[in-house]
């Protein structure tokens, strides 16, 4: 059964190349509750193996996860990635990292039936040795400033990066607030910094009113290889950014 895995596929994906229908194994799943009260807004971080490499920077939305059925993606499940997106994040240390967002999947073998990990995979790192493409796969380069969609067909033009103004070193910028974990620390002694990440969730516009006044806001969640962060836009910035910020787009 170990031969079902597309050995080296995750390494190929994380190097920015395309591959059709890779088969991988689920080693663990973590549910990320967005706190929106809507289960469809929840997300899942999946730890994957292809028998050669493991990747922890894999995400999927609740509707995609639901395609796994009532049991969900149990440990050791064998699944086929039908469609996916990858994007490159430029880190402050000058090294690029890549995020994998799974858009569609097909469970081939439930984890309860498999009940074992295949191979002795090691964590994929950007400086890993050159990885030969799995047999039958096709590849195309992805630039450092774009994202591609893979579905076994021509993915068309890449997504454009939307530019937002960098902040001045605090965790607020005008009427945008940011809350979450940033693996690469932002120091108060830095005069300029930019977060570049993929939009993985966007909430609806909500109205608020209190003793100090009234207004509107919306939340959106960003993710890169190192983690996730939630942003909230208030007042006039709702009108300015709501249509610009779209799920799966890249913001900087």
Automatic annotation (TrEMBL):
Keywords: DNA-binding, Metal-binding, Zinc, Zinc-finger
Cellular compartments per GO CC: nucleus
Coiled coil region boundaries: none
Residue span of region Disordered: 117-176
Chain intervals with Low complexity compositional bias: 135-151
Record's compositionally biased regions (Polar residues): 164-176
GO molecular function, one term: zinc ion binding
GO BP terms: DNA replication
Keyword Methyltransferase: no
Key word Zinc present: yes
InterPro entries registered for this protein in UniProt: NA-bd_OB-fold, NA-bd_OB_tRNA, Rep_factor-A_N
Domain of life where this protein originates: Eukaryota
Pfam families: Rep-A_N, tRNA_anti-codon
Similarity-based family: Belongs to the replication factor A protein 1 family.
The protein's name: Replication protein A 70 kDa DNA-binding subunit
Organism this protein belongs to: Dendroctonus ponderosae (Mountain pine beetle)
